[in-house]
């Protein structure tokens, strides 16, 4: 009795059945292939040609024993070499320096590897989203041409234009209506205090702005009307007012904020008060300011020209890498020569005293520039602000003048005594 099939079949299992057909040898010439392999209608007979005998030891693979089919019995049509079916046409060959429109427009285009452009160019990244501030150029929209900066690292045409405007804002009220020059100094002091307070906040200090601006304007006014003693009094009032104002914010970081406020009060309004005392001279105040500003401008211009063309030896690389000893020599030479001529023409003083005046003012101007560069480097800022194109902030232009006006005031008090 045979075992039952697991699928509930009453017949014997596959290996017990004797009626299973035996495997047919294939290929065999004596056997007639099925109708689907003949390729003809029912009843048609296909005769296979007798293949050439092959020695058994020359067969390299099982496929080598298959019969060779005559070319006339091949079912596939013969295609001429120069005719390609549309559905099997190969993709067009693209020249190495051209890109198909569809591929060029695709953001996921493949990299153009080295050698495709006819040289050893670097691979080109796939096109994707444009970065901020960039636009795709075309025939209607040519690429934007950016003006390269000068060797001094700033836009020279914009710097010259802003410098001329600042000079006009100073000289016009100075020669037309001298009391208006006091408002120019007060406005410059207010802007300079704001820039300094804004810059020192990067270090964590928060000096109170309102008492500093109010005290700075008062300090300049006192220097204009009452002289050096009132200037010192204005500085004292500014520092005391800042101390009292800061108490309202609590004791946290009080010493740090007060230290920063004191530095600003001395650096901006106190030094600017000497410019007010220069202009307040009864008869020739406007000429004293003109001589001082001319010496500072000549120092900056000579230093820029000499440093840009001949500068090779850094003067203070850790503070201001662009300043060189050659530029400093140009500053001193230009300021001394110009001051010698101007002091002789304006005040009828021997040119030798003008040389001394020019050298001293130029040295003070360079020292003031280095002092502010050290402050900015310590705070981690490039410019005090971006208020003036090509110059940065107003304090970036006042740094040389603030150190030059006390020197000029003292020297002119000796060389050209003021007449009451």
Give a written overview of the molecule.
With 420 residues, the chain is mainly α. It has helices at 35-38, 101-105, 156-176, 179-200, 209-226, 228-247, 254-279, 285-310, 325-347, 351-379, 395-415, and strands at residues 314-316, 320-324. The protein has a two-stranded antiparallel sheet. The N and C termini lie far apart (146 Å). Mean pLDDT is 75; it is low at 1-11, 39-43, 58-65, 69-75, 79-90 and 94-126.
Architecture blueprint of SSEs:
Layout: H1 35-38, H2 101-105, H3 156-176, H4 179-200, H5 209-226, H6 228-247, H7 254-279, H8 285-310, E1 314-316, E2 320-324, H9 325-347, H10 351-379, H11 395-415
Antiparallel strand pairs: 1-2
Helix pairs in contact: 3-4, 4-5, 4-7, 5-6, 5-7, 6-7, 7-8, 7-11, 8-9, 8-10, 8-11, 9-10, 10-11
């Amino acid at each position: 009795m045979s075992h039952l099939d697991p699928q509930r079949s009453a017949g014997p299992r596959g290996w017990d059945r004797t009626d299973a057909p035996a495997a047919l040898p294939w290929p065999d010439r004596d056997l007639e292939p099925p109708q689907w392999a003949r390729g003809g209608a029912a009843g048609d007979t296909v005769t296979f040609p007798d293949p050439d005998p092959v020695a058994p030891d020359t067969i390299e693979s099982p496929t080598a024993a298959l019969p060779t089919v005559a070319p006339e019995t091949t079912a596939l049509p013969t295609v001429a070499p120069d005719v390609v079916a549309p559905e099997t046409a190969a993709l067009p060959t693209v020249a190495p320096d051209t890109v198909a429109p569809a591929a060029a427009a695709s953001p996921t285009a493949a990299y153009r590897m080295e050698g495709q452009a006819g040289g050893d160019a670097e691979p080109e990244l796939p096109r994707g989203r444009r970065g901020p501030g960039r636009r795709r150029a075309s025939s209607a929209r040519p690429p934007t041409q950016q003006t390269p900066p000068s060797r001094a690292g700033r836009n020279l045409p914009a710097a010259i234009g802003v410098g001329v405007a600042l000079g006009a804002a100073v000289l016009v009220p100075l020669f037309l209506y001298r009391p208006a020059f006091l408002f120019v100094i007060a406005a410059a002091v207010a802007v300079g205090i704001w820039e300094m307070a804004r810059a020192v906040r990067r270090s964590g200090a928060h000096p109170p702005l309102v008492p500093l601006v109010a005290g700075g304007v008062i300090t300049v006014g006192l220097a204009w009307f009452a002289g050096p003693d009132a200037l010192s009094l204005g500085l004292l009032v500014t520092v005391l007012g800042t101390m009292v104002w800061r108490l309202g914010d609590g004791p946290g970081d009080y010493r740090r904020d007060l230290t920063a406020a004191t530095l600003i009060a001395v650096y901006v309004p106190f030094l600017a008060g000497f410019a007010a005392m220069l202009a307040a001279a009864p008869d020739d105040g406007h000429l004293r300011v003109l001589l001082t500003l001319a010496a500072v401008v000549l120092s900056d211009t000579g230093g820029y020209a000499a440093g840009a063309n001949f500068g090779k030896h850094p003067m203070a690389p850790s503070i201001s890498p662009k300043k060189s000893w050659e530029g400093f020599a140009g500053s001193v030479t230009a300021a001394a020569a110009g001051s010698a001529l101007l002091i002789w023409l304006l005040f009828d003083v021997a040119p030798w005293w003008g040389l001394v005046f020019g050298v001293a003012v130029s040295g003070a101007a360079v020292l003031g520039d280095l002092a502010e560069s050290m402050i900015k480097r310590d705070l981690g800022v490039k410019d005090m602000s971006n208020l003036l194109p090509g110059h940065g902030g107003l304090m970036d232009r006042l740094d040389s003048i603030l150190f030059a006006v006390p020197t000029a005031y003292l020297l002119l008090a000796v060389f050209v005594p003021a007449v009451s």
